[in-house]
Amino acid sequence: MARSDLAAVQALVLSTHPGSIDDGNPAFRDWMTTGYQQALALIPKVVTYDTAMSAVRFYVTGFLDGHFAYSDNARRRDYPILINGWRLRKEKGHYVVTAVAKEWASPLPQQGARLIECDGRAPALLIKEFVAPYVDRRDFPAVTDSLAGGLMTLPLAGEELKRCRFEAPDGKITDLDIRYTAVNSRQYFQIIMQNREQRRRVNEFTLDNGVLWIRAANFNVNEDGAEALASMLTALSATRDVRQIIFDSRGNAGGDSGVGDRLFEAATGGLEFDRSDMAALPRTYAQWRVSDTAIATAERTQAHLVRLYGAESTQAQEAAERLAAFRSARAAGQPWVEQEGGQRLTREDIARRHGRLRRFQGGIALITDSNCVSACLDFADLVLQVPGAVHLGQTTSGDAVYIDVGYAELPSKNLLFLPLKVWRNRLRGNNEALVPDIVLDVDMDDDAAVQAAARAALRL
User: Fold this and answer.
1) Which of 121, 107, 102, 3 is nearest to 52 (CA)?
2) What's the rounded Cα separation, in Å, for the pair 382 and 264?
3) In this structure, are residues 268 and 357 in contact, taking their beta carbons and an 8 Å threshold?
4) pLDDT digits (tens, 9 = 90+) for 163-181
5) For residue 19, pLDDT beyond 90
C-alpha cells in the first residue's frame, strides 16, 4: 500500500501540482525527488495500515502546504491501530493527559497528569520528531498545538516510546513503561472522543447599541445552508444605525471565499477608491495547472454551484467559463490557465486613493484565532484592506501560494488532496501569518470573554 500510494502521489505531483513546473520554486522540485527517496526508505518500518499512511504522509507533509493532504477514507474497521493507551492535549503551555484507555495491560497515567518527558526528550521535541513529520510540519501555533494527540499512536515500527515521566494533578511524579497494544477503530475512537471539544462554526449577527457583531465562522455552505445564508445577507444589508462593525472569524478554517465576499458586501456595501492610473500598480494573478484532476474538479464545482445558486447565477457562470478554459487549454496543449487578480493594493495604497466603504463610515474590526486559514485568510485580507481597520485576536495560520484544492483516488482508495493553482505576486507571502494589532489574551472559544476583551480594546 505504501509503495503503490507513494508512487501514485509522486506521479500526481508531476502531472497535476503547479509546483512541479514552477520555475520560481526550486525547493519544491528538490523535495519532489529527495523527499520521495526518504519516504521510500521508511517502507521497512511499515507494519500496519497506519504506519503505511505515515510513510506516505512523510512525503506529503514535506511540501509544507496545508492544502496538500493524504486522506484516511480507505480504513477498514478491522485494521489494528497500535496505541500506547493515553492521549494528550496542550493546555496553557503544558501537555496534559485528557483521555486514557479503560482497560490496559500495563499502568497508564492519570487523567489530568502532565507529561514531563519520555526517554529523555521533552514533549515539544517528541511531537516534532514523532508526530509532525507524519501529520503537519508547518510551524504555526495552531498546527503545533494540535499535534499533541498524535503521540498516542505508533507512527512507524522502531519509533516506540519506552519510558515516560508524568506529574499527577496532586504533584506526584510517576515513571511508567510504555506498552503499545493493537486496538480496533471503535476502541480507538472511544478514546479520542473523550473530553473532545466541538468548535462552534456558524454565520450570524447581532446589533447591540450600534455595534454590529458578525460571526463569519462557516464558509463551507452546503445546499441546506444556501437559503439561510441568503436570508442572513438580506437582513444584514438592511441594518441601520451602526457605528462599529466587528467581523468575528473565530472557528473559520476556510471553504468558499465567495461567502466571505458576500458577507463583507452585505455589511458594508463594499470598498471603493480612486481607480485612476491603476496600471502603474503591480499586477497579481493566478495560474491554474491544466490536468485531468483540475478538469474533474471544475466539473464538480460547476455542478455544485448550480445546485446552490442556480445555473444563471454569477457563481455558476464563472465556474462554467473556467471549465471551458481548462478544456480549451488541454486541447491546445497549454500547461496553464490564467486567472486575473487585478492590481496588488496595500491598505496604504487604498488610503492614498481615498478608500471608503460605500454604505458605512464607522469603525471596522476583525477578530481571528490561530486556526484562520485558506478562505478565512482571504476574508481577513479583504477586511484589513479597509483604511483604519483594526485586527484583534490571535496570529493566524498561513497558506502556501498553492491553493484551490482538487482530489484524485490512489491505489489504496485513499484520496490525495492537492492544490491546483499558484498565486503570483500575492500581497500575503507564502505561508505568511497575519499578526493582530491587538492580541486578545483570553480563551478564544469563550464568546463572552472575547466580546468583553474586544469591546474594551476598541473602547466600545
Assistant:
1) 3
2) 8
3) yes
4) 999 999 999 999 999 999 9
5) yes
